[in-house]
Design a protein that fits this description.
alpha/beta; Ribosomal Protein L13p, Chain: A; four-stranded parallel β-sheet; three-stranded antiparallel β-sheet; 9 strands
């Protein structure tokens, strides 16, 4: 037996009566739109542009700030299953720093897919070939794996020098050193 009751508060109450060995159980489920989580629609999203100068920035701390912006966690309308984050332009990525001896000692592993095909490299070797790959790997590993994470990673724009082609978007400048003094290596 299923009863649908509609009260004046735009809520629908479902009352279900179950009979089990002469025992009657009543389950009441209330669906009230006022208490439901409001998710943002795709046409309601708008993306902003941010610019970060990575000169002297610590890789992991910079990656956490960037991944939160790319995912949209800095917005009040954050929805985990949607991509409504902002674009991030990072300049001077060739001057990012590691703390301690991680620049020489940290190891990145990848596998070719063949038996015995494990390859390892250090950030020092990786930054010689591709200067932005160290930061890109750090941000990629902080994003969800799958199609959503790949789409969100395309909002990250990395450049080695001061110049970038995204000045037409008028990016807002984020001072990474003013967020926390530990974000930048002091010599």
């Amino acid at each position: 037996m299923l009863l649908l009751l509609i009260n004046g508060h735009n809520s629908i109450n479902h009352s279900v009566q179950l009979k089990y060995n002469n025992l009657t159980i009543y389950v009441i489920i209330s669906i009230n739109p006022a208490f439901m989580t409001k998710f943002i629609k795709k046409d309601e999203t708008n993306s902003e542009w941010f610019e970060i100068d990575a000169k002297g920035a610590v890789v992991g701390r910079l990656a956490t700030v960037v991944s939160k912006i790319i995912r949209g966690k800095n917005k009040t309308t954050y929805t985990p299953h949607m991509d409504h984050g902002d674009f991030v332009v990072i300049k001077n990525v060739d001057q990012i720093k590691f703390t301690g001896n991680k620049f020489q000692n940290k190891k990145y592993y990848r596998h070719t897919g063949y038996p015995g095909g494990i390859k390892e490299t250090t950030p020092e070797k990786l930054s010689e070939k591709k200067p932005g790959e160290v930061l890109k790997l750090a941000v990629k590993r902080m994003l969800p794996s799958g199609a959503l994470g790949k789409k969100q990673l395309t909002k990250l724009k990395i450049y080695s020098g001061e110049e970038h082609p995204h000045t037409a978007q008028n990016p807002k400048i984020i001072e990474i050193s003013k967020l926390n003094q530990k974000n930048v290596v002091r010599n």
